[in-house]
Amino acid sequence: MQKYGLVKTIGEGESAIKLVGNALTFVVYKNYFGKDLLNDIIGFAKKNSGAADLNPNNISLDNIDSFDFDSEFILQLIASLMATAQYPIKPDIGELIMSIPPHFIMDTEVITQLLEFLSLFVNQKKA
Fold it and tell me: What domain range is 107 assigned to?
C-alpha cells in the first residue's frame, strides 16, 4: 500500500525506523495519547524558542544541552509516526515505544532528522 504524506527512515541498520506523517498522524496521536498533536508541537517549540533556534541546521553537540527535549513528547511523536507508517494495522503503543532505540532520544543526528521531518510536516499541514 502506498503511503501518502511525508515518508522518512531515520537511523541505520537494525535500529532504522520508518516514519510517515500525514493527516492520520493527528488522529493516531489523539487516539493513543489523548492529546492534540499540534498543541504539543507548539508547546515544544515555545519551550525551545530561546534555544539556539529550532532550525535543524543549528543543532550540534555544543548546543544540544540548551534544548528542552521533552522525552515523553519525542517518544509519543515517533510512536505516532511509526503507527501511521503501519496503517491500517493498529500496533500496540507499548510495543511501538519499546521498539524505539533508546539512544534516539538524545542522538543529535536523529533529533536533527526528526526536527527536519517535523518542520516539513507542520509546513505541509498549514498548506
Answer: 6-126
* 106 within some domain: yes
Give the CB-side neighbour count of residue 4, counting CA atoms within 13 A: 4
User: If pLDDT is split at 50, 70 and 90, which confidence band does 69 have?
Assistant: low
* b (16+ CB within 10 A) / e for 23-36: ebbbebbeebbeee
pTM score: 0.79
Task: Check residue 55 and report its DSSP letter.
Answer: -
Q: Which residues pair with 7 in a beta bridge?
A: 20
φ, ψ for residue 88 (rounded to 5)?
Answer: -90, 0
pLDDT in tens, 25-62: 999 999 999 999 989 888 877 776 655 444 545 544 44
Report the half-sphere exposure of 122 (CA within 13 A, side-chain side). 14
Note whether residue 105 is domain-resident. Answer: yes
Number of domains comprising the chain: 1
Neighbours of 120 (CB within 10 A): 14
C-alpha span between 56 and 13 (Å, rounded): 23
